[in-house]
Amino acid sequence: MRRRVALLRSGPPLPLAVLSLALLHAHGASAQPAGGLDGPLTLKRTPQLTETLPPAERSQLPSLITGDRLSGRQDLETVVEGHATLRRGEVAITADRLEYYQPDDRARARGNVRVNQAGNVYEGPELELKLETFEGFFNNVRYSFLATGGHGEAQRIDFVDSNVSVARSATYTTCRREDYPGWMPAWLLSAATLTTDTEENVGVATDARLSFMGISTPPIPSVSFPLSNERKSGLLPPTIGVDNTNGIEISQPYYWNIAPNRDATFTPTLMSKRGLNLGSEFRYLEKEYSGSVRMDLMGSDRLVGQRYNETRAAQLQQLANGEIQASDLSFGAPPSTKRWGIWANHHQDFNAKALGLDSLAANININRVSDNDYWRDFTRTPTLAQRQLSNDASLNWSKGDWNGGIRALRYQTLQYSLSPIVPSYDRMPQITANYNKYDWHGFDVSLNLDYTRFRVNTILAGQPGFDINQQSQPDGDRALAIATISRPFITPSSFVIPKLQLNTASYNYFLPQSDVPRLTVNGTQYVNGVPYNPNSLYFFPTSSNRTVPTFSLDSGLIFERDANYFGRAFRQTLEPRAYYVYTPFRNQSMLPNYDSAANDFSFATIYTENAFSGNDRISDTNTLTLGVTSRLIDPDTGVEAARFGVAQRLRFSDQRVTLPGGTPVTDRASDLLLGAQINWTPKWSLDTVVQYNPDTRKSERSAITARYNPGPYRNLSAAFRYQAPTTPLATDGNKSFDVGWQWPLNDLWGDKGKDLGPGKGQGGGRWYAVGRLNYSLQDKKLTDGVLGFEYDGCCWIGRVVLQRITTGTVTANTRIMFQLEFVGFSSIGSSPMQTLRTNIQRYQPLRQPTEGPSRFTNYD
Asked: What are the residue boundaries of the LptD C-terminal domain, all occurrences included (predicted)?
């Protein structure tokens, strides 16, 4: 019998509410009763298929009905038999028999019913639905979802209305269905009822159980979850971890979706060795401002009392043994056991045009903790193991070639008696203005203005962080101006850049009376009219100025030739460079030093004018730096396959300007810098830098890093670093070896896996080893380490990772993290993902969020 085709348009829609699980939600499917065409059907060209149909457009789409036999009575019923199909937009319904009863607005499908809704498939023997009220049922449903590959079954789905449906005896899993008797998924979620509300994007499961490898959780009376990728208030999966500081650690986060642009997370954490920590984080995002605030509070930390008791017992034992005197006891009163931390950042954009500016923005950054030991007792905070916590607020503007800002910066320095640090100066405030003009009649011109008021807290001698030079100049103001003009002469094969710079600064600061000239009258010494007292910390105000000009000439040539090495064609370059700097000597020994330090000796600093960073010391310089670089470039792609370089600084006169306590530099030739970067293929890379001392014929510093990355989830890296001590008796040198890896263990027995694409792993049943070890060859101990394994079970991933973090010269924090991830659903345990990403170069997660598949990839 010839198949008939009918095109129907207009009329009420046909609903189809369907089951959804976490991260998915149901949509309505619709069809239309018979009616005549208003006109001929016209096909239109489109550059691409529409992924999501707007509701207004969906209601205007025609319905296409096909079948072997079409019969019915006008205004009563319509029946389609044999290969019956109803298609409308993104929804297609097929069955052995389709019936529509117009008087009660009821549709019925019987026999091999299949519904494809935007790639999501639902199958069952019987579907009955009222069109207008969206009421009905679907018996013995099997369903699968395109986005996650998840699937399951339900004994029955009841459609309450167009948004709400209730599935009974429902299951869900993302494990791929295997075709053999007795197959059971590795994990399975089952629920007595599963209610979905597509308007609220919420699903509620009652009497829910999660089974894994045949082991089921106790029944959960009720659990809710989002039906889409949109955020939803509720409990997040708990995390469980173990470490030597906290003991067993259990966290139960609660997420509050306040608004589309605001949310908050509350995380109580119970530590078996320490007590309860309450964490909270609030985030907000507006058109003109954004930011976040995190606060952690621990009302009573047992670790503080334990540490105090240990210190007290040790000192009392030393006192009993006669090793110390009673005056040497330092444990004092018990410290507070209340611990807290706050971390906040805020960015604000203002209406700059109203003020005649191009941009105007403010930033606030706050990092504060309760005590000095916070950094080593809480290692998973936003500041991690930092010991100088910056707290600053700034207002920045720009207009044309000008920009500037005002800033207030204050540090909280966390001291540690076994490893004290000298705190940085606070800037209260710092005001800057900068002008940059390029190619002004061939010249580049810049002007940098800076006024800073420096402050530092008083630290008494013998206390951690005390520095005699800093405490001798605790406060001061500095006004700074740097004017620069240069004239670049650049051609494709050469460049010459003469530059003239003028650096001037004015200081108002305080000097201790010991540094001020004294006047003796009648046998009594006076300082500024005050009798001199060598035991007094009295400071006298003073001021100083300095102006330092600098001339530099940077020049270089670029030669190219075609070359062939190891069977590969290259474009080889030879790039000699000469950089001359002259800065006359200006005595700066009496000036305070707020922000200057010696530059690290490297390829990045050897071609600079000043031997110091910051602006308080301008080195007198009469040097010529000579260097040459050669590169091998792929002529087809432009990719640099190799780079080799060498540079040395020649000094024509001594450098007499030094940092406080430093000595003049008298060497006529600096150490020799040699470096190489080789990226011969995308799989291999080698990077090495050597600082060679020609006088001692030894390396002062060297670093060699190699990486092997032959394919996805295969990465090996190794690095050797050596830093010679500053003096033969100094202990500030370093010699360490660092190795990291991510590698499939299945490669060892020939199982290479499959390339399933980024973020999808390489197939189930595969083990991966991950880790990084940093070993000090000088101290002969492991400083930091990460060691773990991952198992990809296709629909689930197991991870176990051990991490060691050094938190002091003799202390370390060790923790173990277990995680079980149910792909496409949820995870339990303590996630090690941030640890792996931070420590292992080029680490690739076995699963990553990817763009959802098109509905046309599963189109009927």
From this structure: 337-749
Q: Which residues contact 10 (CB under 8 A, 6 or more apart)?
A: 32, 35, 38
- Residue 169: which residues within 8 A CB-CB, separation 6 or more? 154, 155, 156, 190, 192
Give the residue from 222, 221, 170, 231 showing the smallest Cα distance to 200: 231
Q: Which residue has the higher pLDDT, 644 or 103?
A: 644
- What are 531's strand-pairing partners? 526
Pairwise CA distance, residues 793 & 199, whole Å: 35
User: Cα dist. 405→33, 76, 291, 507 in Å?
Assistant: 68, 78, 20, 21
Pairwise CA distance, residues 277 & 298, whole Å: 4
Q: Would the pLDDT of 1 be above 60?
A: no
How far apart CA 802 and CA 781 sit, in angstroms, is: 17
What's the confidence (pLDDT) of residue 31?
A: 34
What's the confidence (pLDDT) of residue 569? 92
Please say whether the beta carbons of 369 and 789 come within 8 A: no
**CB within 8 Å of 323: residues ≥ 6 apart:** none
Q: Where are the domains of the chain?
A: 55-237, 736-851
Cα–Cα distance measured from residue 122 to residue 134, given in angstroms and rounded to the nearest whole number: 17
Residue 234's alpha-carbon distances to 134, 184, 202, 223, 294, in angstroms, are 29, 30, 11, 9, 19
* CB neighbourhood size of 443 (10 A): 12
**pTM for this entry:** 0.77
Residue 857 DSSP label = G
* Look-up of token digits 């996630």: 831
**Cβ-contact 523, 530 below 8 angstroms:** no
Cα(53)–Cα(346) distance, integer angstroms: 39
Neighbours of 438 (CB within 10 A): 11
Give the mean model confidence (pLDDT) for residues 32-41: 48
Q: Which two tokens stand for residue 798?
A: 């197991």
Phi, psi of 90 (to 5 degrees): -90, 5
Check: CB of residue 271 under 8 Å from CB of residue 277. yes
Considering only residues 815 and 606, tell me which one the structure prediction assigns the higher pLDDT.
606
- Report the C-alpha gap between 699 and 692 in whole angstroms: 4
The residue ranking higher by pLDDT, 350 or 320, is 350
Question: Of the CATH numbers 2.40.50.140, 3.40.50.2000, 2.60.450.10, 3.30.230.10, which one belongs to the domain with range 55-237?
Answer: 2.60.450.10
Tell me if residue 67 falls in helix, strand or coil: strand
d(CA 420, CA 466): 9
As a whole number of angstroms, the longest Cα–Cα distance in the chain is 134
Q: Pseudo-torsion of CA 722, 724, 726, 732, nearest 10°?
A: 50
Residue 54: CB partners within 8 Å, gap ≥ 6?
none
Q: What is the pLDDT of residues 267-309, one digit of tens each?
A: 999 999 999 999 999 999 999 999 999 999 999 988 888 888 8
CA geometry: angle at 126 spanning 123 and 129, to 5°?
105
Q: How far apart are CA 11 and CA 104, in angstroms?
A: 15
Bridge partner list, 450: 432, 480
Residue whose structure tokens are 């949509």: 27
pLDDT of residue 22: 29
**Any idea which residue has 């639905």 for tokens?**
129
